[in-house]
Amino acid sequence: MYRQVGSPKFNKNGMIEKGLIIRHLVLPNNIDNTKMCLKWIRENIDNCVYVSIMTQYFPTYKAKEYEEINRKINKEEYDEVENYVYELGIENGYMQDFPEENEEQYVPKWEY
């Protein structure tokens, strides 16, 4: 994808018009996977790429049946990922705030 679209290009309002933003959802009990993904991005893609670290995961439906993913990430996991981003020197991107108690803000209101 990066070879196809290249480095981000922004318009005068700061909106990206072309380029790549990599979105990564942090899962509970799986910080090592997040670190591997971030390290791969840093080592294999130009540092101009933007990385968006998403922390809004919460268990729904059948995810609640699996202990490993039956919770939101905790503050320690969040801090570990944030520190690792800085350790790697990833300069461009976004770190979503630590999740609030109201996870419903991330769930679309479906109408039937």
Describe this structure in words.
- It is a single chain.
- The protein is of the alpha/beta class.
- It has a domain at 24-98.
- Helix content is 29%, strand content 16%.
- It contains 3 helices and 5 strands.
- It has helices spanning 2-5, 31-44, 75-88, and strands at residues 9-10, 16-18, 21-25, 50-54, 93-95.
- The strands form 2 sheets. The protein has a 3-stranded parallel β-sheet, with no helix packed on it. A two-stranded antiparallel sheet has the order 1-2.
- The protein is globular.
- The N and C termini lie far apart (35 Å).
Secondary structure layout:
Elements: H1 2-5, E1 9-10, E2 16-18, E3 21-25, H2 31-44, E4 50-54, H3 75-88, E5 93-95
Parallel strand pairs: 3-4, 4-5
Antiparallel strand pairs: 1-2
Brief write-up:
The protein has 112 residues and is an alpha/beta fold. Helices cover 29% and strands 16% of the residues.
| Number of E-type strands | 5
Largest sheet composition: 3 strands, parallel
Main structural class: alpha/beta
Strand fraction: 15-25%
Radius of gyration: 16 Å
The main sheet orders its strands as 3-4-5
Outline, from the CA principal axes? globular
- Helix coverage percent of residues? 25-40%
Tally of individual helices: 3
Average residue-wise pLDDT? 89
**Unreliable residue stretches:** none
Distance between the termini: 35 Å
Order of helices and strands: HEEEHEHE
Task: Give short descriptive properties of this protein.
112 residues; alpha/beta; 3-stranded parallel sheet; 16% strand; globular
